[in-house]
TrEMBL record:
Protein's organism: Pontibacter populi
Annotated Gene3D superfamilies: 3.30.70.260, Dihydrodipicolinate Reductase, domain 2, NAD(P)-binding Rossmann-like Domain
Annotated family: Belongs to the homoserine dehydrogenase family.
Domain of life: Bacteria
Name assigned to this protein: Homoserine dehydrogenase
Enzyme Commission designation: 1.1.1.3
Residue span(s) of domain Aspartate/homoserine dehydrogenase NAD-binding: 14-124
Length: 416
């Protein structure tokens, strides 16, 4: 261990799941050689595993301490996290963050602050939990063009889908179980609504393709309207439904971004990613497809990712955003995708120049459609579809054809 690391002091903001995990890692790794200078928390009354003397309640007690070598920002409040990270970078300090919402919302500014003030910001733990996806993209694929990066980036949603699928639970019961086990928050909207995956996809895009994208530019549908019938539909196609975040280069060499429930088959690695596990597929142009899988949540898995960033930063590592200098690709959401829709029987779908909109089945309760639509047009009617509780999933052209054939006696072309 270098002298620099053995003399290092760390200031930790937050002592929740990830903060506790990082603290445990630092205490367990005997040669970490890092002294915890202080831990800043907000709630003075909350019971904690350490004595009160280990904590401070004013962020400035840490930020103004010149003896601190590195900071770890591990709080849930995105606005407070932004304030802390911004101040640290403007002081030329090194800071590690796990706050994906804050990072995705302010990434261009944070990159500029690092350049202007010679600060360092690392955030591996913000994307895939224990999966080293950012470091892999940043270092190993720094010069090779990528065709696609896609994956399951939210453990809470994946746990819910897995339980509905394997145990036949309703969405509400599976969500309740996820909350009881600590995989989902009391307000699960960020997870099940796809917002968390969007934020992570924005960070991946910066390193994989050199584009800094605002979260609102990404097409987003969650799993909060899913029902058992949708899983049965997937099963009839020998597939499973997973919430997949995807950054894909189109035939026109433009980038398409989306977070959608997606039918994945046995031929795809994501088919085998269950419970709170995350998995990411990287498709380079030359090297061939790669797949990384690991725990996407939890105190120690995420704490270990923070520790990996801390250790790397103390050794001088920093992101260089190599793809940003090339800028050979632009965002364009005009590419078309095949989708499956399930809505309440008798519901009206908005007329947006659907292609091949086919009602393949209708029961007393629901109507089932397949269609082709551009990502951009789907974004335009996103709010309407969500308000009508219409479930959307991405499918392949082959799956659309097979589904229609299964119910050919009831097939009805609605628009063409």
């Amino acid at each position: 261990m270098s002298n620099k690391q053995s003399n290092s002091r760390i200031g930790i903001f937050g002592f929740g799941c990830v903060g506790q995990g990082l603290y445990d890692v630092l205490q367990t790794i005997e040669k970490a050689g890092i002294e915890v200078a202080g831990i800043c928390v907000k709630d003075k009354e909350k019971p904690r595993s350490l004595p009160a003397s280990a904590f401070t309640y004013n962020p400035q007690d840490l930020l103004q301490d010149e003896s601190i070598t590195i900071f770890a920002e591990l709080i849930s409040d995105a606005d407070e996290a932004y304030s802390i990270v911004k101040q640290a970078l403007k002081a030329g300090k090194t800071i590690v963050s796990a706050n994906k919402k804050m990072l995705a919302s302010h990434l261009p500014e944070l990159i500029e602050l690092q350049q202007n003030y010679n600060g360092t910001l690392l955030y591996e733990a913000a994307v895939g939990g224990s999966i080293p996806i950012i470091r892999t993209l940043e270092s190993y694929y720094s010069s090779e063009p990528l065709q696609q990066v896609s994956g399951i980036l939210n453990g809470s949603s994946n746990f819910i889908l897995s339980k509905m699928e394997s145990e036949g639970l309703s969405y509400s019961l599976a969500l309740q179980q996820a909350q009881e086990l600590g995989f989902a928050e009391a307000d699960p909207t960020l997870d099940v609504g796809g917002f968390d995956s969007v934020n992570k996809l924005c960070l991946i895009t910066a390193h994989a393709f050199g584009l800094t994208i605002k979260p609102e530019q990404v097409l987003r549908f969650g799993i909060d309207t899913i029902k058992k019938e949708d899983l049965e539909f997937a099963k009839s196609m020998n597939a499973r439904i997973r919430l997949v975040a995807s950054a894909e280069v189109t035939e026109d060499n433009e980038l398409s971004l989306r977070v959608l429930p997606t039918l994945v088959t046995e031929q795809q690695e994501l088919y085998y990613v269950t419970n709170e596990t995350n998995g990411v597929t990287i498709a380079p142009v030359f090297a061939g497809e790669q797949f990384i899988k690991g725990l996407g949540a939890g105190s120690h898995p995420t704490g270990s990712a923070v520790w990996a960033d801390v250790s790397a930063a103390l050794s001088g590592y920093r992101y260089s955003y190599p793809k940003a200098a090339i800028k050979t690709i632009a965002l364009n959401q005009d590419n078309k995708i095949n989708i499956y829709l399930r809505c309440v029987a008798g519901s009206t779908l908005p007329e947006v120049n659907w292609e091949n909109l086919v009602k393949v089945q209708e029961t007393r309760e629901a109507a089932y459609f397949t269609a082709i639509i551009s990502v951009h047009k789907l974004q335009k009617i996103q709010s309407y579809l969500a308000g009508k509780q219409i479930f959307i999933a991405e499918i392949t052209a082959e799956q659309a054809t097979n589904f229609a054939l299964k119910f050919s006696e009831k097939e009805e072309v609605v628009y063409s």
